[in-house]
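Quick one: structure tokens for this chain, please?
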Amino acid sequence: MPVTDTLCIDGVWRPAAGGATREILDPADGTVLATVAEADARDADAAVAAARRAFDSGPWPRTPVPERAALLRRVADLLVRDREEIALTESRDTGKTLAEGRVDVDDVTAAFRWFATLVESEPAGRVVDAGSPDVHSVVVHEPVGVCALIAPWNYPLLQASWKVAPALAAGNTFVLKPSELTPLSTVHLVGLLAEAGLPAGVAGLVTGAGDPVGARLAAHPDVDLVSFTGGLASGTRVAAAAAPTVKKVALELGGKNPNVVFADACATDDGFDATVDQALNAAFAHSGQVCSAGSRLIVEESVRERFVAELAARADRIRLGRGTAPDVECGPLVSAAQLAKVEAHVADALAEGAVLRAGGGRPAPGPDRPAGGFFHSPTVLDRCRREMRVVREEVFGPVLTVETFRTEDEAVALANDTEYGLAGAVFSADTARARRVAARLRHGTVWINDYHPYLPQAEWGGYGRSGTGRELGSAGLAEYRETKHVYENLRPAPVRWFAG
């Protein structure tokens, strides 16, 4: 398959209708990594038409559940087979370390296996007691139809799998649009679906920009559901485009996530070490390009100075470089535009009075850091205030802000003082207090004495402007279903409601 034939429509790999292409850049040095097809609205329409035919008259929606589950497991086996190749692709495309890429592939594999197990273990329908032996009443679940799945650039394969696996498990067809910045692992995944035996037309792929491709998918009258993961501004446009056709919409729009550290978590040397380490992990994994990144450190005033000093010292020692290089701990940002955005946030924060404790800008070039790469040093900004833009807006880069509190109520108030509500954490040696604070946090995922782990069995999503709906868990499957009540009268007779 020529590299530019990255559209998959009705089971056929092809170039864009208009012949346009896009160069995919290696964020470690700015060189061209690959060239892909640049779709437009015509390609989106063709992909939707194929998915519509596959749903309305193809075999997949009527395929028995055990067979659908078996296909998902075959995909998981193929992911295991291609683990190193896909992880390398993900590392080069996004800039993340190769180790992170491997973890992503393992998590994608787990998602496919989880949804296979979930859909296979469910009862065929829920019998409802109608209060009469002459009535059989059952609630069943059916696929929504044609789904538009729009994935982000930071976890292209992982976030795509959170949509693709439940969509297929439920019996839907779909058109998948990866980010125009990082489409390469998604191309590989769609190839694996075909290899696993998925019928032609069930899985469509269009590589191209959000406008016009994503916008057309969201507005398309033959699309029954749109699932979008990305930024708040783009998500609101997707919701507005979908509204006239009243299609189902699921949105995951990021967060500005608090990491609350109580002094008692640092009372012992081991506790202090673990809590500092987790704060680094929370803020700087994948260079902070994580929707659930713990970018807001909210630490008890009595331990602030010791904690921030150690945190900043360790941040300055993070090994920054090309994700595929040995011993590198943090890779580049995804693009020059993202680097400029992060630099602007840091400059604004310093102008507003934040105190720089670590990082602050681009590192010097080195053996694993080419001069053309989009690198930014892990940055710690102390003495931050709630009104600062860097505290309130999602930076999506390696920038950690520090705020302090004196009481539990103040900690909770600070943590909840955000328009987002995706994730948060609380660190405390007092189990009762940790659980009490977790219960008060208005965030979709709350970790206690940990940061970042998730389970495919547990729902993922946020409160407030972090989005609507949930991915993963049983609710993640429910997003891709319609619920139908079938009421059967076993002994029909005249009702005699009307005298005539």
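The chain is about 40% helix and 20% strand.
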